[in-house]
Amino acid sequence: MDALLAIRGVSRRFGGVAALANVSFAVPAGAIVGVIGPNGSGKTTLMNLVSGVDAPSGGEILFEGRPVQGRPVHRLARLGIARTFQHIRLVPQLTAAENVALALHEPEASLADTLLRLPRLSHIEGERRRQAVSLLERTGLDGAADRPAGDLSYGDRRRVEIARALATRPRLLLLDEPAAGMNATEKRALHALIAGFRADGITTVLVEHDMDLVMGVCDHLHVLNQGRAIASGPPAAVRHDPLVIEAYLGAEDA
Ligand SMILES: Nc1ncnc2c1ncn2[C@@H]1O[C@H](COP(=O)(O)OP(=O)(O)OP(=O)(O)O)[C@@H](O)[C@H]1O
Ligand SMILES: [Mg+2]
Questions:
Q1: How far apart are alpha carbons 51 and 108 in whole angstroms?
Q2: Per the CATH hierarchy, to which homologous superfamily does domain 1-80+171-254 belong?
Q3: Whose CA is nearest to atom 8 of ligand 1?
Q4: Which residue of 136, 204, 225, 245 has the fewest C-beta atoms within 10 A of its own C-beta?
Q5: Could you tell me the pTM of the whole model?
Q6: What separation in Å is there between the alpha carbon of 242 and the centre of ligand 2?
Q7: Residues with Cβ within 6 A of ligand 1?
Q8: Are the C-beta atoms of residues 32 and 204 closer than 8 Å to each other?
Q9: How many CA atoms lie within 13 A of 129 on its CB side?
């Protein structure tokens, strides 16, 4: 299978900190690939580089074989790369449906653009609303369509973020800790949702601390520790890798 995404020797330095150091791996089209590692290991930095929020200090990022590193978010969105954020970014005073509708035609709209257009958005029209509600339905949230995003539980806001990312019709979806703040029932629903992306032709990169979810839903894992890729393989193998166990135990001792 061809790689949809290839990370090649990617580094990102912040002053003296090597957030990522010479990381390489490929994500095959149609796969669900997990990126795990202790706090501060570089997972979000990697998501930022692939989605265009940030640019690498070195190395290449190929999407469908084309170098895309350093391109802005809106260009990558148009190519089919969408993401959710570890620190949720919704407009709290807009309803769940309005937050999703924003991404339907204007995936590249910045938060500033969005706020400028608030009055115009207070009544989203029929077809956009229908599509937004249908995307919320897919994430199990159609009942919350007309509630302000800021009033929703943490887990529900994470699902609105997924619906918003899906609104851009992504081919590559990057999820940064989608299960954070979810209860066991919500996590089971999230598992089913992510597993279903495969059938829709969406390739997924999942950053997650919940090991049951990661081990259960991913085809393949890459493990980061202090900015370096220390292991990769099928979940069952990675789980027993001594380097991985040591990285997590070391993080607990710190
Ligand atoms: N904008 C920034 N400026 C300076 N340092 C940064 C910046 N972003 C990340 N870092 C540093 O880079 C390292 C990796 O951070 P990153 O957020 O990618 O980790 P993470 O694996 O996502 O952690 P967590 O599991 O806690 O979310 C950390 O040492 C962090 O402090
Ligand atoms: Mg992070």
A1: 12
A2: P-loop containing nucleotide triphosphate hydrolases (3.40.50.300)
A3: 45
A4: 245
A5: 0.92
A6: 23
A7: 14, 17, 19, 37, 39-45, 86
A8: yes
A9: 10
